[in-house]
Specification:
Layout: H1 3-26, H2 31-36, H3 41-56, E1 62-69, E2 72-83, E3 88-89, E4 96-97, H4 103-115, E5 136-140, E6 147-151, H5 158-163, H6 178-185, H7 198-206, H8 223-235, H9 239-248, E7 272-274, E8 280-282, E9 289-292, E10 295-298, E11 317-318, H10 320-331, E12 335-336, E13 339-340, H11 344-350, E14 368-369, E15 374-375, H12 378-384, E16 393-397, E17 401-406, E18 411-416, H13 426-437
Helix pairs in contact: 3-13, 4-8
């Protein structure tokens, strides 16, 4: 080849490389948006590495990660597989079973009704669901696990439900004899094809003894499912309709549902369990009801078309982007894009300690609790060595969805996957730690 032709080709390659670099530097996300939101693009490659390692190690099939700062999304990435067996890639619009990340949304619905004067925090629940009138507390005999019934000193209030100090529990905690009582009464934890309506489920729950006197301890349980039923009674709408008209529509959360529309079903992430070696194993959609210990769930429960059961504590399905809009509304003090759902003082009330000196038993979400959110206090930050700032609030779901909001850093973080594990998966905290390494300013 003549030398001038080689020079011409080399020059073309060099020019193309330079132009490519210039275009890359001027491109929109991830770099430009990341820089505008105070995120270091170079360091964010380490976030990718954390998730890629988990996928390659078969801990998870895939995940969607989202970071927003100063009101803008600076990082939105899908890694791995939505369905590993079918080789369907994870995408940023993948739908995830939120499980307990439903609770903050239900709590917002309750506080909207409080602001409207339709509810009071000190209202007894029996005002709306009469079956809760005259509750009893079960005192267990530790030798026989039989219960001695005592009248509760007072009734459960809306405040008790919002703060999980009601005395209600979850069947899946496997605490005798309450697990047996809940099972025999047909009480659902919200992860399966439950019969009837959510109000039916709550009425069955109301007939059972409490674990402790209302207001005396913090105990995670079906309190938010009861709140969902209260919203239905007070508003005269089922929870799905209330959410759609009062929250999802105004916030433009068009991919958040109790039951996934048929045309969007293919975007629902496959569900996995860890095997005895900690590697993911697919939950077959053909298995129907699956039991893991006392957890009963169905991989297909979000796909029913005619169910009237709307679990306020565990039932929603959503995307990372949709849920980020809900969290941005909270971080903005109750408003997003000119739409206000709550007053700033209500948001402040929801995201600060409302349980006094009581402590939660789920430290990965902070040491205290507001109304629907775990809260990190000064004491909790010192004990847990959490990288988030004091005053941050967070929550997560049984199927490994997780968020946190750090008002001091003006930061929202979301990590969404679909692996059923009880407790805090180490991937969450490793991801969160590396996020703070990426912050600039």
């Amino acid at each position: 080849m003549p030398s001038f032709r080689r020079c011409l080709m080399l020059t073309g390659v060099l020019v193309a490389s330079v132009v490519g670099c210039v275009l890359f530097l001027k491109a929109p996300p991830p770099s430009a948006e990341a820089l505008a939101t105070g995120l270091d693009p170079a360091k964010m490659e380490r976030l990718d590495a954390v998730i890629k390692d988990a996928v390659e190690g078969q801990q998870i099939a895939g995940a969607v990660m989202l970071l927003a700062r100063h009101g803008r999304i600076g990082y939105l990435k899908a890694i791995g597989w939505r369905d590993a067996e079918a080789q369907t890639p994870m995408t940023t619009d993948t739908l995830f079973r939120l499980a307990s990340m439903t609770k903050p949304i239900t709590s917002v619905a309750v506080m909207m009704l409080v602001e409207e004067g339709k509810l009071r925090l000190d209202d007894p629940v029996s005002k709306f669901i009469p079956e809760f009138k005259g509750p009893t507390v079960g005192v267990p005999n530790l030798l026989t696990w039989s219960l001695h019934m005592r009248p509760a000193r007072r009734e459960i209030t809306i405040h008790d439900l919002l703060t999980h100090t009601s005395g209600l529990t979850y069947r899946f905690w496997d605490i005798p004899p309450w697990t047996t009582l809940y099972r025999n009464a047909g009480v659902s934890d919200g992860f399966n094809h439950a019969p009837g309506t959510s109000l039916n489920n709550v009425r069955r729950l109301a007939r059972l003894p409490l674990m402790f006197q209302p207001g005396s301890f913090w105990g995670y349980g079906l309190s938010t499912d009861v709140l969902g039923a209260v919203v239905e009674v007070v508003s005269g709408q089922d929870l799905q309709t209330f959410f759609r008209q009062r929250i999802f529509g105004p916030l433009q959360m068009h991919d958040t549902f109790f039951y996934v529309p048929p045309e969007k079903k293919e975007r629902l992430a496959a569900l996995y369990l860890p095997d005895r070696h900690g590697r993911r194993q697919r939950v077959s959609e053909g298995l129907g009801l699956v039991s893991v210990g006392e957890i009963e769930f169905s991989a297909t429960y979000p796909c029913e078309t005619d169910s009237k059961y709307f679990s306020g504590g565990a039932g929603l399905v959503s995307t990372a982007s949709d849920y980020a809009r809900f969290l941005q509304m909270m971080l903005n003090g109750g408003e997003l894009d000119g739409v206000r759902l709550l007053r700033p003082e209500t948001v402040q009330q929801m995201t600060t300690n409302q349980i006094g000196y009581k402590k939660t038993c789920i430290p990965q979400y902070g040491d205290s609790f507001g109304y629907g959110f775990g809260v990190l206090t000064v004491d909790g930050k010192g004990q847990a060595l959490d990288v988030a700032s004091t005053g941050s609030y967070s929550w997560g779901g049984l199927f490994q969805t997780y968020f946190w909001v750090d008002p001091k850093k003006d930061l929202i973080g979301l990590l969404m996957s679909q692996l059923l594990t009880i407790g805090d998966h180490p991937l969450r905290q490793e991801f969160k730690k590396r996020v703070y390494d990426c912050l600039v300013g």
